[in-house]
Design goal:
It is a single chain. By secondary structure, the protein is mainly α. The chain has 16 helices and no strands. It starts with 55 loop residues before the first helix and ends with a helix.
């Protein structure tokens, strides 16, 4: 049975070239250099480069993955009494965050220690982490009637762990580019973490290290790898694979501690022998890569009605957590027993998809941009490139 005590982005658009720089995922908007035009804006004049176009495939993938994240959070309280919900929950948790993290790695290939990229790392990841970690802590104090809950930037609460992880992973990109066997090394680190209970909860390092292999895999993926997953035979094969995964999850649900899917504890902390951490890390990595490939195989490559929402997945990810946690704090699943019936479970699934969709829309992005994408020019020195650009504009 699920352990819910510690649960915690016509014509086909081409995939981006391996040289196309882009921000991490989930990502509010395409990255841009300070002083550069808005993405998609028209540029004219001699020497100007055309604005980079967002790729519909990745925006579609981010939106669909964040929908599965919201659905998983809505299903979590149902897993104690519904094996069907538990099976869906386990399958979705096998691939939704790995898919996000893999795309994050893919779009981190161009990261280096250049000034403008470090600034975006601070304003787009570090600052939102601080703001939302404080906001979530205050929310728990109030909504859960827990005034003693501490506000600690060293102990990420609920969803904010992903921002810490993305910051750490992005900073290590130059290292992964120089080592000889990056993916095996990342897997070895994840295995060591899974058998090391003394790592503790600071910065949620267990999750940072255990999810690391997916980021490193994405870091070394190429456009042709995504093309391979889009082949017709892969899409056909993914159907029985997914059905088999659901059947296995239905059988394994009552026999397996689903805390393994959260990657936030060592084997010993889950009451298992140390060698189980080695076996489960490798098994979970293999299953996650297979189901993530099945997911990518069915992501549309053309522009859809929801493509524009892919630019707002970080907004949806962080904002929906207040409602997801609030529903537990306020006892909605206990007070409204019909939610635990089949029709109620369907309603929760549709409602979760609708809420996360709204939270990814442009109006919500504009309303919360102050927290998610603060400009903060006052906090950084102006480098020589930016000064030269401004002089050229004035001349």
């Amino acid at each position: 049975m699920t352990n819910s005590l510690r649960p915690y982005g016509q014509q086909r658009a081409p995939l981006p070239s391996a040289q196309t720089p882009a921000p991490g995922v989930p990502s509010p908007r395409p990255a841009r250099n300070p002083g550069s035009p808005q993405p998609g804006a028209a540029t004219t004049g001699p020497g100007t480069k055309p604005a980079k176009q967002r790729d519909a495939f990745f925006d579609n993938a981010k939106y669909l993955a964040i929908v599965f994240v919201a659905m998983g959070h809505a299903w979590e309280p149902l897993t104690d009494h519904s094996r069907a919900a538990e099976a869906l929950y386990m399958v979705v948790y096998t691939f939704h965050m790995p898919a996000f993290i893999l795309i994050s790695g893919y779009f981190s290939r161009s990261f280096d220690m250049r000034t403008d990229r470090l600034q975006r790392l601070v304003t787009g990841i570090a600052v939102p982490y601080i703001l939302f970690e404080v906001a979530y802590s205050l929310f728990k104090k109030w909504a859960d009637d827990d005034p003693s809950h501490p506000i600690s930037l060293l102990d990420p609460w609920y969803l904010t762990w992903f921002l810490v992880a993305l910051f750490v992973w992005r900073m290590t990109v130059p290292l992964w580019k120089v080592v000889r066997w990056p993916v095996p090394l990342a897997l070895a680190i994840a295995i060591l973490a899974s058998v090391s209970p003394d790592i503790g909860d600071d910065l949620d390092l267990q999750r940072v290290l255990q999810f690391l292999p997916f980021f490193v895999v994405g870091l070394f993926m190429k456009p042709e790898h995504f093309q391979l997953m889009r082949r017709r035979e892969v899409r056909i094969l993914s159907v029985p694979v997914l059905l088999g995964a659901l059947a296995f999850a239905y059988w394994a649900g009552p026999r397996m501690n689903s805390a393994w899917f959260y990657h936030r504890d060592s084997a010993q902390e889950l009451g298992a022998p140390w060698w189980a951490g080695v076996v489960m890390t490798l098994a979970m990595f293999g299953c996650s890569m297979v189901l993530t490939s099945c997911f990518f195989a069915w992501v549309p490559r053309r522009k859809m009605w929801f493509t524009v929402l892919g630019a707002g997945t970080l907004y949806g990810y962080l904002l929906h957590g207040f409602l997801a946690k609030g529903s537990r704090f306020w006892g909605w699943y206990d007070d409204y027993a019909w939610l635990n019936q089949p029709l109620g479970e369907i309603f929760l699934t549709v409602a979760a998809a609708a809420v996360i969709t709204v939270l990814c829309t442009p109006p919500v992005q504009r309303a919360f941009r102050f927290a998610m994408e603060p400009k903060m020019e006052w906090a950084f020195k102006r480098d020589a490139t930016e000064l030269a650009r401004e002089r050229a504009k004035k001349s």
